[in-house]
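Question thread 4412

I'm putting together a teaching handout and wanted feedback from people who do this every day. The idea is simple: show students a protein as raw sequence, then show them the structure tokens that encode its fold, then repeat with a second protein so they can compare. Below is the first pair exactly as I plan to print it.
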Amino acid sequence: MTVLSRHSTVAAIALTAALALSACGASSDPTKAAPASSGSAGTAGAVTSVVVGAADFSESQVLAEIYAGALAAKGIKATTRPNIGSREVYLKAVEDGSVDMVPEYTGSLLSYLDKAATAKGSDEVYAALKGAVPAGVTVLAKSSAEDKNSIVVTKETAAAWSLKEIGDLVAHQDELVIAAPPEFQNREQGLMGLKAQYALIPKDFRPLKGKAIVDALLGGQAKAANIFSTDPAITINGFVTLADPKLLFGSDNVVPLVRKDKANPTVSAALDAVSAKLDTPTLTDLVKQVDVDKKDAKVVAKEWLAKIGLG
């Protein structure tokens, strides 16, 4: 990548993260590599340092570098902590102060926090998310950049099975294998949602990450895959993205999730300025530079910030 009411969210996320770490066999929490940062006297106080965390995929990492660069341009000592892990782990890190903020996605985060959420439109999802985040945490302005979960297939599979939308897979579910990140198995925006919204239950599920998902699709080990909609692999390999008429994956705008004790006016203004400039084509290109062109995420972030006058 699980969903709870607002009043039980904080304790439950911590428990979920602990279970996730245990299931992975981790001997220690990777977010404990550095102590909780300090330097804030509250949302109106001075913030001198910020630790920006990132999940274990390149888009999150380049966004974290962008946020850190924009903050550094305002005189704030900003460092990044990449590859923390899935949402279950990095949310715990934000709550316990191991990191101060992370890039997030409005719809996915809302679905994680509130299983009963019904919001689908961009503004509606954002408004609901602001009321669902745990105490001590806030979301700043959302960008127009949107990166949704999506279900993709090869052109060959789309033609052979006459696929145009996700529901068309139901007729072939007895031979359907879906490749996706491990957390997809137990999320509303995952196998649970596919079953609830489309009555789709695949024959098998292959928990994979990154390039392994693409390789499974190309190699025939999977017939469909969950890939982020801005992933350049979709264009490079000519994958077909299946329509989602029931809006299972809703709206997923990029948004900074920040500890309230770090979200003072300086920090908020710097990050809001980034969100105002970030759109979907830009995000897709930034990911391409990292994943395809093999440029360092720090370099990509620095060049983009300089280009838009925020570096």
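The second pair follows. I'd like the answer to focus on this one:
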Amino acid sequence: MLGRNTLNLVNCFNLGLYVIIPSLAFALPFPQDFGFPQRFNYLIDAGLCWESNSLFHPLSLQPDNISNTTTYSISPKLYRQLMLFSDRYNSIISDTTEHGWIIGQGGIEARGQTGPDRLYTKTAISPFIWGKAGFKRNWYADFVLRSSNEARSLDHYTGITRDIARAGFNTAEFDRLALGYKNDWANVEFGRGREIIGPMAEDNLAVSGGAPAFERLVLQAHCRRYAYRYFYGFLESLSDSGRNIQRYIVGKTLEYNNHHNLVIGLTELSILAGWERSIDWAFLNPLALHIEVEQNERDNQTTNDENALWVFNLDWLALKNLRLAGALLMDDFQLDAADRKKAQDQLGYQLHIGWTIIRHPVVLTALVDYVSIGTFTTQHNHRWTNFVSRGKYLGNSIGNDADLIQIGARLIFRQPVVVEMSFGQRRWGDNSLLIEPYRVRSTPVYKSFPSGQVRTNRFFEVLVDSQPMKNLAVRINGHIDLSHKGLDSEMECWTFMLRYAHLFVI
């Protein structure tokens, strides 16, 4: 039993789960994979669990802060796995003083793809294990280890495929491996992971869930409605004309969160690069501003091999059933009239609308998404300062020099099934960093957008997310081309996923 002080929380969909939380500081961040971010996003879209909402992802369920939650008669099986982690985690934290503890999940995934744009043809088998270990409440270690016989089947995976297989698997990677300390107001962490910052659970403008993981130092502090997060990370080492180019990323975000219906924040992101460039002590200062350091020449390079962009993020529950989320990315903004005649602003936009029309007996949410990222946005004169890593784009999945608009609907049934359907159009041009990640930016003059040959794909997408059993999840994603035009514009593909996972507590 969890004790007499256990909070009897009827969660957002009348899930009937009982959770104890000793402190906000000990809320469990869910792992990025295994369906957790998507299912939490279903709740946020429906106007629920906003006490746990934030710009920093993956989110942590904080039921000690939830009050007067409206309940609905939706099957508890849909989110049982999501809530079970908080239940188990907080029960062992409340009982732990001197002894260590481990909580995690191990299992195996099977994936298959079909369609003209499929990445692989064979059935991909991928065992995984996620775990979090702790000692004396405040200290923790966190890891996700994945292996597979087909590296292209795994999301945001950068492990190298080997010529020789072991037990049938030829690639493996720690997607997360970190050590940290966390108390009521601060969090310090060092290790491998990724930064996902913005209103959306995965696909934000500047740093998203699809980016490669990297080693980084994270400092975060929060006080009531304010939080500040800083990170300094090493992206990669590349060879250029016989020289070793070291690439780093630095980020700072100030967030305001009323824990009710509004989250806003401003993010500064910097890419640092240079020949044999070491850690830059000026940028290691968590309070230093990029422009101030660069303009006063306090960085450790004389060749100006760094670049920055800024993102304003907004997540607003305008009505109890209407979510408006968006972001504005500013990479280069022309203040002078003379400069404006020569060059265009380098901007990016993102808008997400979730309007929950019906809440009983099923949940029906209408969805609208719009993303536009300029031709030269996130791309710079020094190719090593482009916002990419290990050949992959760090930001939104559409890349730069592209736009996307789609409308759709999501249905959450009484049974543990979510069905989402949408129609949309995606366009992208020759300058996309998805095509050539380390492309050098040409002189930014006014030109058509998207640039060059425009690829256009009009589509219908469908998603079925189901958990028919406690340890078994089934997911089907389908992209059907209604029409496509341009080189490599075909995107039709179906992905089928079957996952078995078992929760363990030690």
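Top answer:
Good format. For the second protein you could add a caption like this: Residues 297 and 369 are 41 Å apart (CA to CA). The chain has five helices and 22 strands.
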